[in-house]
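Pasting as-is:
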Amino acid sequence: MDNAPPLSGRRGAASLLDQTRDCALFFAGRFGLMAVMKLRQAKIVRNTKETRIAVSINLDGKGKSSVKTGIPFFDHMLALFAKHAVVDLRLRCRGDLEVDAHHTIEDCGIALGQAFASALGDKRGIRRYGWFAPRPPGKKMVGAPPAVACAARAEAYVPMDECLARCVIDFGGRPHLVWRGLDAFSQRRLAKSEKNQDMSSAFRFGLAREFFQSFANEARCNLHLELLYGDEPHHIVEALFKAFARAVDAACRHDPRIAGQLPSTKGKL
């Protein structure tokens, strides 16, 4: 049995702090910081003369959702976003749908972006950038060594039958949306037969853009969305929302290597 005298005073306090720190770092690395950090949650209520919205989000959730906006197809998109971003989302919106769907979709993007900004807080310890995935076959980084060329870029590719969508995101405090590959669809005039086909055809691609623009503005993120190819309206929108979800999931994750640190050389995001 160790007969060394017990530590006291400053030495004892320092030893206790070291043990506490080591324990915290162990759990941080083992359980992704969940054991030593509060859950990242936010609630936003936004009421205007056009919409009344209440949204709550838990970034450390299980992918559960309850969404009612009055637009079933949009509800479906937000539900699959929560599922694939692995966040818990509850959203209620009563909008002036007698006018059109624009106000509802745009304002939901505003409220959801505000919820993300609030839940992320000062963004210490997060990865910040989106999904790190290999480049598509045949694509190489010019001048990069093989290890870099094969390693990673901040992007999410999601296929949906004949469609392929890509999303890249950076929660760096700078709002900007890039919307590529959809110009031929976004403001295209719908034929009467298309409007009567299904809700995904009536859900104009321009409305999806308004949602993502509003989210990027309020979450203060760079958001790059691109349709690489695709034709069927439902598949295109769903692939975009799923790619968005996967990129958000990766960007919001904690990186135990930078626990408590800002992922920026500026010292603020």
